[in-house]
Design a protein that fits this description.
This protein is mainly alpha-helical and 132 residues long. Helix content is 70%, strand content 0%. The longest helix is centred in the middle third of the chain and has 36 residues. The radius of gyration is 20 Å and the shape is flat. It starts with a helix and ends with a helix.
Length: 132
């Protein structure tokens, strides 16, 4: 990949990083504003719990993407950008254009997702504890 293209990608990653940091900070402020009130109303307690869970899940996704973006920036700086972290092959340019923080080629990404899915599947009629 040429230096000009890498510079553009690095800027795009830096912009996305800045946006995510702002989003994470807004989420932290919102979480701080959600206070447990002295209430025994189950609906209020459920709403508070739901809002906290929602903010937590949104922040977790943002943190994961932020880590990926930071790794991509580091890969650019180390001249390893665009290299699959699993098989070492080049990541397709179209994939990098769509997801510039991609760590793996599409083949390896699909394999990892298939492994995750199959490891979480529980046969019908069994509990997860029965499998272990």
């Amino acid at each position: 990949m040429d230096a000009k293209k890498l510079k553009e990608i690095r800027q795009r990653l830096s912009d996305e990083q800045e946006t995510l940091i702002k989003s994470i900070n807004r989420g932290r402020l919102a979480a701080a504003e959600i206070k447990v009130e002295n209430t025994e109303d189950e609906c209020d307690l459920a709403t508070i719990s739901h809002n906290r869970d929602l903010l937590y899940n949104l922040n977790e996704g943002d943190f994961e993407r932020l880590r990926s973006i930071q790794e991509a920036i580091k890969a650019i700086d180390n001249s390893q950008y665009g290299e699959c972290g699993r098989c070492g092959d080049d990541i397709d340019a179209k994939r990098l254009a769509a997801v510039p923080w991609a760590r793996m080629c599409i083949r390896c990404q699909e394999a990892v997702e298939a492994e995750r899915t199959s490891s979480r599947m529980v046969p019908v009629g069994m509990d997860a504890e029965d499998i272990e």
